[in-house]
Amino acid sequence: MTRQDGRAFDELRPIKITPDFVKFAEGSCLIQCGNTMVLCCASVEDRVPPHVPEGTGWVTAEYSMLPRANRERSKRDIAKLKLSPRSAEIQRLVGRSLRAAVDLAKLGEHTITIDCDVLQGDGGTRTASVTGGFVALALACRKLVEEGVLASNPIRHFVTGVSAGIVGETLMLDLQYSEDSRAQVDLNCVMNELGEIIELQGTGEGRAFTPQEQQELVRLCAKGNRELLKLQREILKR
Amino acid sequence: MTRQDGRAFDELRPIKITPDFVKFAEGSCLIQCGNTMVLCCASVEDRVPPHVPEGTGWVTAEYSMLPRANRERSKRDIAKLKLSPRSAEIQRLVGRSLRAAVDLAKLGEHTITIDCDVLQGDGGTRTASVTGGFVALALACRKLVEEGVLASNPIRHFVTGVSAGIVGETLMLDLQYSEDSRAQVDLNCVMNELGEIIELQGTGEGRAFTPQEQQELVRLCAKGNRELLKLQREILKR
Amino acid sequence: MTRQDGRAFDELRPIKITPDFVKFAEGSCLIQCGNTMVLCCASVEDRVPPHVPEGTGWVTAEYSMLPRANRERSKRDIAKLKLSPRSAEIQRLVGRSLRAAVDLAKLGEHTITIDCDVLQGDGGTRTASVTGGFVALALACRKLVEEGVLASNPIRHFVTGVSAGIVGETLMLDLQYSEDSRAQVDLNCVMNELGEIIELQGTGEGRAFTPQEQQELVRLCAKGNRELLKLQREILKR
Amino acid sequence: MTRQDGRAFDELRPIKITPDFVKFAEGSCLIQCGNTMVLCCASVEDRVPPHVPEGTGWVTAEYSMLPRANRERSKRDIAKLKLSPRSAEIQRLVGRSLRAAVDLAKLGEHTITIDCDVLQGDGGTRTASVTGGFVALALACRKLVEEGVLASNPIRHFVTGVSAGIVGETLMLDLQYSEDSRAQVDLNCVMNELGEIIELQGTGEGRAFTPQEQQELVRLCAKGNRELLKLQREILKR
Amino acid sequence: MTRQDGRAFDELRPIKITPDFVKFAEGSCLIQCGNTMVLCCASVEDRVPPHVPEGTGWVTAEYSMLPRANRERSKRDIAKLKLSPRSAEIQRLVGRSLRAAVDLAKLGEHTITIDCDVLQGDGGTRTASVTGGFVALALACRKLVEEGVLASNPIRHFVTGVSAGIVGETLMLDLQYSEDSRAQVDLNCVMNELGEIIELQGTGEGRAFTPQEQQELVRLCAKGNRELLKLQREILKR
Amino acid sequence: MTRQDGRAFDELRPIKITPDFVKFAEGSCLIQCGNTMVLCCASVEDRVPPHVPEGTGWVTAEYSMLPRANRERSKRDIAKLKLSPRSAEIQRLVGRSLRAAVDLAKLGEHTITIDCDVLQGDGGTRTASVTGGFVALALACRKLVEEGVLASNPIRHFVTGVSAGIVGETLMLDLQYSEDSRAQVDLNCVMNELGEIIELQGTGEGRAFTPQEQQELVRLCAKGNRELLKLQREILKR
Questions:
Q1: Using CA atoms, how far apart are residues E229 and B37, in angstroms rounded to an integer?
Q2: Binding of phosphate: at which residues (chains A, B, C, D, E, F) (predicted)?
Q3: How far is CA B157 from CA B52, B192, E30, in A?
Q4: ipTM of the complex
Q5: CA–CA separation, F111 and E22 (whole Å)
Q6: Where are chain D's structural domains?
Q7: How confident is the model over D37-50, as pLDDT tens digits?
Q8: Using one digit for the tens of pLDDT, what is the confidence trace for C5-48?
Q9: Do B76 and A62 touch (CB under 8 A)?
Q10: Chains C and D: how many Cβ contacts under 8 Å?
Q11: pLDDT digits (tens, 9 = 90+) for E104-163
């Protein structure tokens, strides 16, 4: 069994990150992972939600699919008057992942909202949102320092995300939609630059999986995350 | 008084239309008018809403701004649980304009929905949605013919839209946001390839305007629409 | 071709405006244009929305149809949990039209909301809402002056609205529903007492129309608006 | 203690019922009880909700206040995205009351919806909705017979409603708002033409009340209902 | 005719009240009336809604059915995006009933919310909510006194609720679902410890009823309420 | 460092499962894990959602907290008109976990909905919902077999869930709220009776964690899940 697009089992799809894709947001990028395209925009506001302790900041995320991001058109959330439960689940994951990247005390009383809007979805949109969302977040933080709003950069560490899964009985990195839709097991892993785990979500959709299989999937993800980290570093060096 | 970006008073902003910006929609393009960027996607479905006479088709549009399309982030519709009234107004205009372009009998029992999502808004998003939306619509219709779903192309005529306004006491074509926000009068005009009017909306935000001024604004729009039509023809020739 | 109700092509339906139809609102009237009946109520509040500059006031409108205003019963907005997009479009038009009638600086930090509730709809409800809404607004402003809340009347000019259209190939003033529903072209025009345009909306529902046709429709509307203005003056003289 | 408007304690406010106030509904009237004004419209549809047994019909009601029906403007339900709980309570009462008036088997598979829209509210709007709603319902049923849709009139008996209360320590019939707002006890009573009770709702807002007081309030209501019944008969005789 | 469960016509179902069923609420109980089970929780907050006069408190109630409380599963309110109109009606009744039990001036600027969640519904849930809700309310008030938040207990009198009805032509106390669903007449009666009425709601679902029948139903309810009062006293003595 | 309630680090809280806590649902139980109490009800319907392949069944879950389940009262979802995003996330997890327990082909065209309503929340409500939800599901499946609706039991394997975390620097099983709220790392693990993983969610709220730590947390969960499995077997043996 080989992969449809000829990739090795531990190979990422071609990744492209275009920083500053839009210009009004404090930070933005368009991230493309194969056919998956997510526009990530970081917006800074000078106030924090009520539950945040005085003097500290907040980082949150919103995630949405454009109606024709997928093979079939889906209705907008507003037409159904409810946030898609899948989007709710994903934006909580993205928010926790990116919040972990920031020293909220250093951020001071600012909220940074990362909007992740999927222009095209071909698998892996939630982890692309984490990886691209981090770039938008880092660009916004840099701007806050350059403009003298913050004394020092509140980024604590880089954050990347990638998925792995078991298709047939083969373990594979970075599932595209045609693989994801028939995967037995699907696991998303968000890591920092030390290879430590920030978020881990594994689902036995087709069958249960052993702790050993789970470890191997994490190891595959670690490889992918190292490559994504390298790309983020290049983009942000400029 | 000269324009901020050095344009002549009857000059359009630089326009760029990228067809097939996303690949799952039956037709799509990214239209850029200066800093304004709208992603237009046409989706075809094999059924029509109940109010449509048997045997004929339907064309409709949806319009939305991404939360950080503008200088300040705005909440998503779903967070407020209501479609922005401005979006409601605009998508009705876009829908009527594009519906007028199609012979609904020839379209047969299909619905084409044009999603216009503003990635960046710098004035003129509703008319850019009409102009770009027509390209997406035409690409989708061509595909329906190529795939043998339709016997002949149901497009009756091209459709373009542009705005003009009175800023200070000067009449100008294609207002960008910095002009639009202080315009006395604002007029949007959608036309077909014969220079006939399909939709006309004029508002005296700062002062009332005379029928003579109104005619001159329509004449300015006619000039802009001719140039947009030329660009559409080039794009669709390929 | 003659009109169903025997009117001349440039003749308004019989108009009746009953001021103070209800007594709690600061200003109110029932406007009847043929079978169309709209209850217009002006309510004054001592605060303004956040976007309004300090020291100035605001005028806004809401528009709604009672469920059995039409030939068929329609569900209430609340049953569908969404403001009818048509109502959203119309109340923005009515709000802009009536706001243009008022010197917002003279109004001071007050909001006047004009509620236009259609008791019976037989075509022309949006322009009847403008014409009747102006009467309610003017009565409310007069009351604010009489009660010493305002030093001088903030009304800048009268505002009236009427529609014209092309039915068959005939241009007609003030379309009733049976005409409107088969009109090729429909144009609404809101004017001040000088015959200047405040709002203009033209739609080629059945076919596109030339700029010349558009001018003639505006001229028809100007005639109708002059007659509506005369009636407003009589009502408000009392 | 005398009543503000000089009425006797067992005296109704002046009542006026204008049948056919609007013309598209199958039945309609405007009912005025003092300053309270409710527009009641009956709409007939050729289908019934799923819970209704085959071959039988349904009668239901909707109740709403226009935003400026009262001394202060209130937001529309749709602006708050929820049906006012008070309206929900009232329309269930009106629906049960009017349903009881109809032989649902004779009505056949039709639904009659009675829309009660309060144009002005000065106390007693729910019972005015019952009394006026019955007139609209009876007019619609008559029309169904006249048009041959129904073989015989499905009205089983007349239905009227009125309130009584204890203000200070005085029992009074038909409270207007100024009385209602300071009543100790408030009781609404819907009766048929035999003086039998269809709906009864009593509330000790200011203090609890004895069963003896409750009986006297019902007796007061019975007097008022007899007078309302007489007026309904006159209106419907025409 | 005898009752399905062998009860006498004026006999309550077995009642059990478990105080402090949950431990975080300031007061709580589980009330069981036959198969009907309602969890009642009283929550105290240090602020009052805007409409409450300065220095006084507020008591309110919310009522809801769990989706599988009944013989058939029903959708959650949030899935339909609307509060069930029946719940709206009931929670207004429960709120008025319990508010009447409290001296709001003595309560000071606190709001007590009584949540009544029906775990199982077999008839009489609204009156069980009143009876159980009072126990939760009284426990919360006692706690406020014990903790020194209030100087004296604001409870003015006990409150209980029970239903009676006419099934066939027999008057019965405390209808269970199998009786309620075929009752001709249904009456709910909330009383204080003196046997005075606080809330009364009677509905002639199957037929109208005479004032004499109504009195007898109130007398039946008075008997039931006396027994419920006795149980409340025992529970609260501890 | 010892645990507040004196438990060993790898020790579960006292667990109690009361089957058939309510009687109308096809299967139900009340599960108590320390102070956490969740009512789980399984409802069977004879139809499946549109996305389910013909001839197969569906299992889904809903999760909600009663307003006073926690130390502070929270508003109901319906008052905010949105499903809590946390509930959305959790019910998707519970649904996937329980769906994995069932052979959907054997279930045939039935939907089983597991409602998990938290009566009291003291940490671990999502995993208690899985463990208790499985009992409700298994009871419902048994009933379907006993009643002859299904030929054989569609349960494929048992499912249990438990959490573990790192508090301070100590790994602990089954966090209660006081531990959970200050945990550095939190991991939920759903397993089958073979100790294979069905769902895994780990979050580094306070700090990132190594793959080694992650493995140890899974091992702790495996121990807890074995004990929960034993309890489920006893309950279901009866």
A1: 70
A2: 86, 124-126
A3: 21, 6, 70
A4: 0.96
A5: 32
A6: 13-235
A7: 999 999 999 999 99
A8: 999 999 999 999 999 999 999 999 999 999 999 999 999 999 99
A9: yes
A10: 83
A11: 999 999 999 999 999 999 999 999 999 999 999 999 999 999 999 999 999 999 999 999
Residue type, C226: R
F26-36: burial string, b at 16+ Cβ within 10 Å, e else: bbbbbbbbbbb
Alpha helices in chain D (DSSP H): 77-80, 85-99, 104-107, 125-146, 177-180, 211-237
Residue D76, CA distances (Å) to C76, D87, F142 in order: 11, 12, 50
Tens digits of residue pLDDT in A73-97: 999 999 999 999 999 999 999 999 9
Which token pair is B172? 């100008």
CA distances from A106 to A56, A101, A148, A159, B215 (A): 7, 12, 13, 18, 58
- A172 and A164 Cβ atoms separated by less than 8 Å: yes
> Neighbours of E (≥3 Cβ pairs closer than 8 A)?
D, F
**E6 pLDDT more than 90:** yes
Kindly list the distances between the CA atom of residue D215 and the CA atoms of D210, E216, F193, in Å, as whole numbers in the listed order: 9, 11, 67
Does residue D57 have a known ligand-binding role?
no
Residue among B183, B69, B205 nearest B174 (CA): B183
Give the nearest partner residue to D68 out of C41, C81, C119, using CB atoms.
C41
Instruction: State the chains in contact with C (3 or more Cβ–Cβ pairs under 8 Å).
Output: B, D
- Contact at CB, B204 and C197, closer than 8 angstroms: yes
**Chains touching D, CB cut-off 8 Å, 3+ pairs:** C, E
* More confident of the two residues E54 and A238: E54
Residues of chain C with C-beta less than 8 angstroms from the C-beta of D119: 21-22, 39
User: In chain C, what residues touch B89 (CB-CB under 8 Å)?
Assistant: 85, 88-89, 92
Closest residue of F to A214, CA-based?
F197
- Strand, helix or coil at D127? helix
A101-140 per-position pLDDT tens digit: 999 999 999 999 999 999 999 999 999 999 999 999 999 9
| Phi, psi angles (nearest 5°) of residue B103 | -80, 100
Contact between F78 and E73 using a beta-carbon 8 Å cutoff: no
C96 is in an annotated binding site: no
The answer to whether D191 contacts E208, with C-beta atoms less than 8 Å apart, is yes
Q: What is the pLDDT of residue B108?
A: 97
Token code pair at residue C90: 């119309």
User: Beta strands of chain A (E only): which ranges?
Assistant: 15-19, 27-33, 36-45, 58-65, 111-120, 159-167, 170-173, 183-192, 197-203
- Provide, rounded to the nearest whole percent, the portion of chain B with pLDDT above 70: 100
Inspect the interface and report whether the beta carbons of B71 and A37 lie closer than 8 Å: no
Residue C2 pLDDT level (bands cut at 50, 70, 90): confident
Q: Torsion-angle region of residue C126: left (phi > 0), alpha (psi -120 to 50) or beta? A: alpha
The stretch B183-209 carries a mean pLDDT of 96
Return the residue in B214, B215, B221, B225 with the most chain C beta carbons within 10 A, the one to mutate for interface testing.
Answer: B214
Chain B residues with CB inside 8 Å of C201's CB?
A: 200-202
Report whether A166 contacts A110 (CB < 8 A): no
Alpha-carbon distance A77 to A62, whole Å? Answer: 13
CA atoms within 13 A on the CB side of A186: 17
